[in-house]
Amino acid sequence: MKTNSLFAACAAGLFLSPVSAIAQQNICPDFRWTTLGTAGGPVPTPERSEPANLLEAGKQIIMVDAGDGAADQFARLGGNVAAIDAVFLSHHHQDHTAGLAGVIGLRWATNSPGVLRIYGPPGTKTMVDGILSSMTASAVVGYGLGQKSIPPADGVEVFELVGGSTMTMGELTVRAAENSHFSETPALADGRPSASLSYRFTLDKRSITYTGDTGPSAAVVQLAKGSDILVSEVILVQQILDSMRANSFIQPSMIAGMKAHFEKHHLTPEAAGQLAADAKVGELVLTHYAISPGPLRNAEPALRGGVRMNFTGATALARDLSSFDVGCSSAN
Questions:
Q1: Where in the numbering of this chain does the Metallo-beta-lactamase domain appear (predicted)?
Q2: What is the DSSP letter of 151?
């Protein structure tokens, strides 16, 4: 496994086509995770984009979560949303889904071929239906030439998943587990329970597990067992609370509840390290970290130091537009 900058991949034209050079040579399909956005939301930051990721698995390009600006981040790599085969959503919080409308809308506006498959927990279809409904005026106007537009709904297909769902997408296998981001499973308007999901992506014998947002979870430990890479959220509780107080965007009466939420529904560095150790993963990649105002270098020691209390393996702090490969040797 190696960590490298995606700018080299962009220069090589990697994301201008869903098929990488190594896959074309039929040696070993690429298996690469890209952190498009690493900032925990929902408050936007000037330095980093909100949670979104890209998985290249052989011939497939998959977006995993689609925070605000996901399409823009992909474009910064030289990518085109027409190349995206599928989107997986972990849960229905705006910082993980706000960019989906842009992906769907841009694919429709550019007449992208094929159908975008969208996977997510219950409620995903309702959300996508809302996005499609918001495009009604655009579909009527088109390019103003009197030509009838293709209905936006023709370009998407939605699949709702629950914990335990498994699917095969060509050579890629995807498993979902329900995690602990919600203490109580919220009911949707139709009465069904929603969920927050973690995903394990397996190509030949190589695996990448993505926690999404979660607190400590035995189900996620089981899902991640033996993964080459664990992409985990992480949070510095006190720093975030201090930032909230300093910026006055939360009522003082809500601080106690937010503290409980952060500690129970998210992973501190120590908890992320424990998850990696319990699952015996090859490498831990930290993302979704929210920090108090100031340079990242001021928070990095706390993030790494907390992890090292429980996990001594390879650990990377993801930046926007960085990539993590699971090499061919891992499949042996």
A1: 49-261
A2: P
